Amino acid sequence: MTTTPGVAHERTCRRALADTAPKQRVITTYRPGGEVMNERFKVALRRGDEPPRREDACRVGAMRRVAAARLRYCGLQAMTNDVVIIVSELLTNALLHSGASEIRLTITFVNDSLRIAVHDGVPGQATPRAADHDNDESGRGLVLVDALAKECGGEWGTSDAGAETWCHLPVSTEERP
Fold first, then answer.
1. What is the CB-side half-sphere exposure of residue 103 using CA atoms within 13 A?
2. Quick one: which of 17, 64, 129, 166 is 20 to 30 A from 103 by CA?
3. 40 with 26: CB under 8 angstroms?
4. φ, ψ for residue 50 (rounded to 5)?
5. Phi, psi (deg, nearest 5) at residue 38
6. Is the CB of residue 96 less than 8 Å from the CB of residue 89?
7. Which pLDDT score is estimated for 174?
8. Running DSSP on this structure, what letter comes out for residue 40?
9. Of 58, 159, 33, whose CA–CA distance to 108 is shortest?
10. Whole-number Å distance between alpha carbons of 170 and 155
11. How many angstroms separate the first and last alpha carbons of the chain?
């Protein structure tokens, strides 16, 4: 029997999320002109350079899909591709580098822009860095966020002593809810 690459991983992620779903409290609300998404989830504490638990890593993909659905629901589907990449990179960065036990993703529509914020509650320094080698699988996340923000006419940064990383993307008048 052959399997399609990624299908087994997706099945494992779905199973892992289903197994932990009753334990997780997820908050989702929407108010026009305000909050588009507010999701919070627990993650296991990591030691040293050990990779995140599979269940925690799978949450990044789940949050990407929820963000895309919320954007469609709010009439902001034209921004979906850029936003899901930014969501993925900011969440992955928090998961890999913060040492947090809970991560919160919020997306709000404020002052004609979409604000994507990931709060891990752990102060630190979020700085883009180039990957050491062309074959490295990590190390490009914040560089990608920086490039996407600039391309869209937005900006990104940190607040709360680095415990929150955010990105603002302008919303064109045609896309405003």
1. 25
2. 129
3. yes
4. -65, 145
5. -145, 100
6. no
7. 61
8. E
9. 33
10. 9
11. 48
What's the pLDDT tens digit per position in 117-130? 999 877 766 655 55
User: Going by DSSP bridges, is the β-strand pair 113-119/164-170 parallel, antiparallel, or unpaired?
Assistant: antiparallel
136-140 contacts: CB < 8 A, separation 24 or more?
A: 138/96
Residue 128, judged by CB atoms within 10 A of its CB (0-12, 13-18, 19+), counts as: middle
pLDDT digits (tens, 9 = 90+) for 50-108: 888 888 889 999 999 999 999 998 888 899 999 999 999 999 988 887 778 899 999 99
Reported confidence tier of residue 19, pLDDT bands at 50, 70, 90: low
**Residue 156 corresponds to which tokens in the numbers above?**
């990104």
- If you write DSSP's letter for every residue of 41-95 in order, what string do you get? EE-----TTPPPPHHHHHHHHHHHHHHHHHHHHTT-GGGHHHHHHHHHHHHHHHH
CB 52 within 8 A of CB 46: yes
Q: Furthest-apart CA pair in the chain: how many Å?
A: 53
pLDDT for 130-173, tens place per residue? 555 555 555 578 888 999 999 999 999 988 777 899 999 999 76
Q: Which residues of 11-35 are buried (b: 16+ CB within 10 A; e: fewer)?
A: eebeebbeebeeeeeeeeeeeeeeb
